[in-house]
Specification:
alpha/beta; 21% strand; 7 strands; 35% helix; seven-stranded parallel beta sheet; 6 helices; globular
Length: 156
C-alpha cells in the first residue's frame, strides 16, 4: 500500500519541513509540493526537516487538480483534510487498506475548492476549544498517523 501526502499552497517552509519529518515517521512514501509550496530545493527546509527530505521522496506538481486526477486513475483514494460542509471526523471512520493520498492546503484558506471537489472523502479533526483548526503541520501529523494506524494496524 502506498501512502502519499499532497501539500497545496503551503506558504511556510517550516510547516513543510515539519511535514517531511512526520511523513518519514508515519511511513509515507512521497510528498507532492503543489503550487507555491516550498520544497527541499529550499535550503531553509533542511534545518526543520533534519534530513527527512532525503528519506521521503518528493515531487513538484504544478496543478493539484491534474495530480489528483492522475492519482485517481492509478487507483489512489484521495482524502482531503478540511473544515468543510459535509466533512466527517477522521476518528469516526474506517479507511480501506488501499493506496491513498492525504491533501492539506494553505494555512489560512485551506484546501482549494477544485481539490475538494475531486477528493473521494473530506475529513476533519474535531476541536474542543474555541479555534476551528490546528497548525497545518500539526494537523498533517495527526492525519498521517491516524491514516497509518487505520490502514496498517500500526500503533493498534
Amino acid at each position: 500500500m502506498r501512502k502519499l501526502l499532497i501539500l497545496e499552497n503551503i506558504r511556510s517552509v517550516h510547516n513543510v519541513g515539519a511535514c517531511f519529518r512526520t511523513a518519514d515517521g508515519a511511513g509515507f512514501d512521497t510528498i507532492f509540493c503543489c503550487g507555491y509550496t516550498p520544497d527541499p530545493s529550499d535550503v531553509r527546509m533542511t534545518k526543520v526537516s533534519l534530513g527527512a527530505e532525503k528519506s521521503v521522496a518528493w515531487q513538484r506538481a504544478d496543478s493539484v487538480s491534474l495530480l489528483i486526477k492522475t492519482l485517481k486513475e492509478q487507483g489512489f483514494l484521495i482524502y482531503a483534510l478540511e473544515c468543510a460542509d459535509g466533512a466527517e471526523s477522521l476518528f469516526e471512520t474506517t479507511l480501506p487498506n488501499t493506496d491513498f493520498a492525504v491533501i492539506l492546503g494553505h494555512e489560512v484558506d485551506g484546501v482549494s475548492s477544485e481539490a475538494l471537489a475531486l477528493a473521494d472523502r473530506v475529513f476533519l479533526l474535531p476541536m474542543l476549544g474555541t479555534k476551528e483548526s490546528l497548525n497545518v503541520s500539526v494537523a498533517a501529523g495527526i492525519a498521517m498517523y491516524e491514516c497509518t494506524r487505520q490502514t496498517t494496524g500500526f500503533m493498534a
